[in-house]
Every structure is written in C-alpha cells, then in structure tokens.
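## retry 2 of 3
previous attempt timed out at serialization; input unchanged, resubmitting
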Amino acid sequence: MKKKTSSPLAVHATIAAAALGGFLLLPLLSGEDLLSTIPATSPAEIGVEHTMPATLALTLAVTDEAKGILEVSHDAAETVFVSLPETWILWEVRGKALADIKEDAPSFGFIRWHIPAGATLSFRLEEIPSSLSAENPSGVSLKIQLTTVDLVSEHVGRNVILVKNARAKIW
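## retry succeeded, writing output
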C-alpha cells in the first residue's frame, strides 16, 4: 500500500492560514470591541444645554475602519441644544422635517444643533474619537444613554451616565 505524503508547501500554508485566522479572531475572542482599539490621540467633547431634566440617547455604530455613525436623540418636551465637533457631518434626520433642524454657525470647532422634541439626528464620523466627554452646564440633570455597536464583531455595549453642572467621560 502506497503511503500518502504531504507537500511541505501545503503544510506551511495550512499553518500560516491557521495562525492568520487566530490573529484576526483575537479581538473577538478577547471580548474587545473596535472602540477600545482606537488610538488615544483623538479625544472629543460635546456640550448639552437644556432647562428640564432630560435623557440624551447616543448610539454609535463603529466599522473596522474607525469610522462610524452617531445617532442623537432626547426625550425632553423642549428643544435641546447639543454642540458637536464641526467635523461630524449631519447624515440623516428622522421624526421632524429637515427644515425644523437648526444649527448655529461653527464656533471654536463646534456646531450647536437645535434638536426639537421627537427628532433624531444621525452624524457621519470620518474618525471615531478615542474618548468622548460631555459637558452639561445646565442646573438640571441629564441622563446619557450610550449604546455602542461594533458592526464587525456584532458586540453591543450599553452604559448610562448621569451629569449635572459637570463634565463626564462617555467613553
């Protein structure tokens, strides 16, 4: 009976493929999401102004290219003013007509968005910030509900942050 022999090239190719596959799966197996792998060189800040207690919902969808979409909405019965980096591009408006969404001229690198009750705004982020802080100078409480979605690993994270007359780290 003839013994089957393996080619050295086939053996090396199999080992290389297994090693590469393991390397690519390492972030998924370690529970690490893409947000935690972004270099710590691009922090960002947002500001929120309101007169009544409110919940600000932030949903961030992250791709493997460190780009993403940030969705912003609130539950207040009033217009809430949210200052975002001017590099974040308005992508979509839901719940209100586009004409109902106002913005102030850019100032100090920020655009102040007037978000009426019932509106949801989505922004395209060409670069996901490595960290995000929120400033709430209002004398009333703000609950920030953060949802992060890693579109590669399908990992979903949730966090709630309470802020009043202070700055808080969101991620």
